[in-house]
Amino acid sequence: MVHLVLIMMLTVGVSTRACPIMCTCRNYPLDNSQKTSTYFTSVSCSSYTENITDILDNTTRDFEISNLHQQELADTLNNLIENKLDLPYLSNLIITKSEIENLNVSVESLERILSLTLIDNRLESLPEVFLNLQNLQTLDLSHNEIKVIELEPFRTLRTLDVLNLSANSLTKIDSGSFSGLNVLKCLDLSRNNLTKLDDQVLLPLSSLQYLNLSNNRLEALNEVCFSSLIMLQQLDVSWNRLARVAPGSLQLPSLARLLLAGNPQLGRSREAAVLVGTGRRLQTVDASRTGLKQVPAALTHSIRTLRLAGNSIQTINCGDLDSYPLLQLLDFTSNDLEVIEEDAMGRLDSLSVLYLTDNNIHEIPKSLPEKLKVLHLEHNNIQRVSSKDLLGLTGLEVLLLSDNKIRTVDEAAFSQLVSLVTLDLSRNPVTILQPGCLVGPSALQVLRLSSIGIISPAEEVSFPLSAPEHLITLDLCDSSGLARQFLADTATLAASRELQELDLSHTDLEFIRSDLLHYLPQLRVLHIKDNNLNCSHLEWLASWMRRQDEPEYRDIMCASPADLWGTPLVDLQDGELSPIETINQQENNIDREIINLQRENNTNLYQISTGQYTTESTNYISLAQEEIKNVTNITGLIDVTNYTKYFNKGETDFSKSNNPEITNEIEKVNIKKK
Ligand SMILES: *[C@@H]1O[C@H](CO)[C@@H](O)[C@H](O)[C@H]1NC(C)=O
Ligand SMILES: *[C@@H]1O[C@H](CO)[C@@H](O)[C@H](O)[C@H]1NC(C)=O
Ligand SMILES: *[C@@H]1O[C@H](CO)[C@@H](O)[C@H](O)[C@H]1NC(C)=O
Ligand SMILES: *[C@@H]1O[C@H](CO)[C@@H](O)[C@H](O)[C@H]1NC(C)=O
Ligand SMILES: *[C@@H]1O[C@H](CO)[C@@H](O)[C@H](O)[C@H]1NC(C)=O
Ligand SMILES: *[C@@H]1O[C@H](CO)[C@@H](O)[C@H](O)[C@H]1NC(C)=O
Ligand SMILES: *[C@@H]1O[C@H](CO)[C@@H](O)[C@H](O)[C@H]1NC(C)=O
Ligand SMILES: *[C@@H]1O[C@H](CO)[C@@H](O)[C@H](O)[C@H]1NC(C)=O
Ligand SMILES: *[C@@H]1O[C@H](CO)[C@@H](O)[C@H](O)[C@H]1NC(C)=O
Ligand SMILES: *[C@@H]1O[C@H](CO)[C@@H](O)[C@H](O)[C@H]1NC(C)=O
Ligand SMILES: *[C@@H]1O[C@H](CO)[C@@H](O)[C@H](O)[C@H]1NC(C)=O
Fold first, then answer.
1. How far apart are CA 94 and CA 568, in angstroms?
2. What CATH fold (topology level) applies to the domain 224-381?
3. CA separation (Å) from 526 to 517, 520, 564, 618?
4. Mean pLDDT of 266-275
5. How confident is the model at residue 642 (pLDDT cuts 50, 70, 90)?
6. Are the beta carbons of 446 and 473 closer than 8 angstroms?
7. Residues near 128 by Cβ (< 8 Å), separated by ≥ 6?
């Protein structure tokens, strides 16, 4: 990908020769350094052009044509033949959305290509066009209507690496179809209608590493169908109708990734003996939606990722996971789990990610592995987070408890989670969050407390998170009590200096304290949709929002005062304020917008100094300019009595600094003469 981007960036320009209007012609440097004068050409035509040979030459590497009728395609190829075009560097030929059924020509100038892509041409059988492609490495025939493979069509493609037959109409593949493909590494047969795999079909594919048979209608895998695939690393047989997997059929020495998902009969037949008898390299197994009622046993102990989502597992017993000592990721999403025996997971020493989402779990499982980093418990029936849960999980980084029935969060419930970065308690019937119930996770970056109906009055209780210093995202959407607590809690606000995204939408918000942005210098996105905003004196916010340029801000409407009802907040202008006239500091051109005021004690006297600031740190300076300002350092005392402030701090006036916490703090403001 990076490579591709690089090539795109290094595009030298459009070919000097006239490129027909229906084509695009691009030149790329031959290697990735721009210094070279040699380049290759990539030509792509979206419809027929009679003079195509004019633009193909010994620099052409890629040639793509699409939307051609059968005759146009034949003409194009004949054109190449008649002109005896030499295309020594042509590597990639792409023909799409064209009629190439029954095409049977041999084009000498195309014979050296490495990659042939014939996607989406409604091919019903394999065209003979590529019979002579001695160097072909990649053949993509996906999205056609191929029903049968006859006469060993690939036997001459001795160098083929990748064969893609995905999204065709194959119902059966004859033995011998793949003969000659001794070096094939990748075979995609997904999205066909295969019901059966003959024993011999895959026999020649002794180099195969990737086989995709997903989205077919296979009913059984017999003992020998894969037996020659000794190099196979990835096997995808998901979304079939597998009911039977013969013992031994998956005993493949190189198999590392086995995808069995979406075969609902599989687990029912014989309690999931599927994984008994797989090779010792197996690392990833997806047995989601396979009708399992129990954790399947496995003989190999090498599995690191096990997905069992969408099954009917009700219990995880002690010992069930003994076959998986190296497990790092375990997914039980959407099962019927109710009981997880106390030590069922305790011995999974490497487990780092555990999904228990969408089950019927009533309490947070005990004795979770110490190394756990990510714990998904959303959509369960958990009623309480007690201080005895989550013990010892000092490495836990992500804890998701949203959409449960949690009414109580004990004090210090999270106290041991010192590494926690993300916590989601949204949509739980919690009515009280004691101050300090979120003590412990001192590095928390994302806190989601959406749709929580706290009933405690805002003024009396401080916001429950005690250490917001690293908070980046705070979601209080639809939690009006918490939103009010947060906005009223100046200490917490003042500590949230890293906050970048704050969601206060749908929280019955009427007023927004005018110093909000002052406390949250890093704020980038403020969600305040669906409130009853009183827009008097919100010009500062409007002007900040205009600078943020978030599309959703267009939907924030004023609810009052009456003359602003229905007005988008962003349209508020600081109407009555005249352009800034800053205090004239001596003769030099002091940058107008940026002035420091340091309050002298509790008087109206301010120490002025100016300096160099970026707009980054001065969110609330109106008319802020983008570039860094260089201004002379001037200090002096000024009595602000006769100046009105012109800064987006709205109502906050200098006397606001009576708040001992911000007295004498340097403020950056605009000032204009009254
Ligand atoms: C193709 O080339 C011929 C002569 O070289 C010219 O007369 C004709 O207009 C060209 N057609 C197109 C579509 O460029
Ligand atoms: C490509 O063809 C041109 C003449 O058409 C010739 O001058 C040039 O050397 C050829 N380049 C290569 C790499 O063969
Ligand atoms: C394709 O053409 C070759 C010779 O030009 C011929 O031997 C072969 O039978 C043809 N194949 C089809 C399917 O028409
Ligand atoms: C095969 O083609 C399909 C559709 O064009 C594509 O999605 C898939 O990734 C390809 N398979 C491989 C292995 O490249
Ligand atoms: C597979 O077969 C079914 C029924 O015979 C048919 O409806 C469906 O279109 C076929 N799918 C493909 C990709 O050919
Ligand atoms: C197999 O093919 C299906 C459908 O084309 C695709 O969604 C899936 O990702 C592929 N599997 C692998 C392992 O690449
Ligand atoms: C809106 O706020 C202004 C100033 O804070 C106040 O005078 C006015 O009464 C408020 N309007 C409503 C409808 O609350
Ligand atoms: C502010 O207080 C300090 C001592 O607390 C005093 O020295 C200084 O003179 C005071 N400044 C003004 C302008 O009152
Ligand atoms: C600010 O002034 C310094 C020293 O005079 C100078 O090096 C720097 O380039 C100036 N910065 C800008 C953005 O003008
Ligand atoms: C500006 O003044 C401050 C104190 O008011 C001082 O720390 C700083 O060094 C001064 N900067 C310059 C460039 O003189
Ligand atoms: C403020 O203005 C009044 C009237 O114009 C004037 O008497 C007073 O001296 C001024 N105060 C200061 C500190 O400039």
1. 51
2. 3.80.10
3. 10, 11, 21, 17
4. 67
5. very low
6. yes
7. 103, 104
Tell me how far the alpha carbon of residue 179 lies from the centroid of ligand 3, in angstroms: 20
Q: How confident is the model at residue 5 (pLDDT cuts 50, 70, 90)?
A: very low
Decide whether any atom of ligand 5 lies within 6 Å of the 172 Cβ. no
Atom 2 of ligand 6, residue of closest alpha carbon: 190
- Is pTM beyond 0.85? Reply is no
Q: How do the domains of the chain map onto residue ranges?
A: 1-113, 224-381, 594-673
Closest CA to 56 of 69, 68, 66, 45: 45
Tokens linked to 457: 């009055």
CA distance 363 to 344: 15
Q: Are 337 and 313 in contact (CB under 8 A)?
A: yes
User: If we measure between CA atoms, which residue out of 316, 378, 389 comes closest to residue 348?
Assistant: 316
For the beta carbon of residue 401, count every other beta carbon within 10 angstroms. 23
CB 321 within 8 A of CB 354: no
Burial of 364 (0-12, 13-18, 19+ CB in 10 A): buried
Distance 152 CA to ligand 3 centre (A): 15
584 against 478, higher pLDDT: 478
Atom of ligand 10 nearest to the CA of 632: 13
Burial bucket for residue 601 (CB in 10 Å: 0-12, 13-18, 19+): exposed
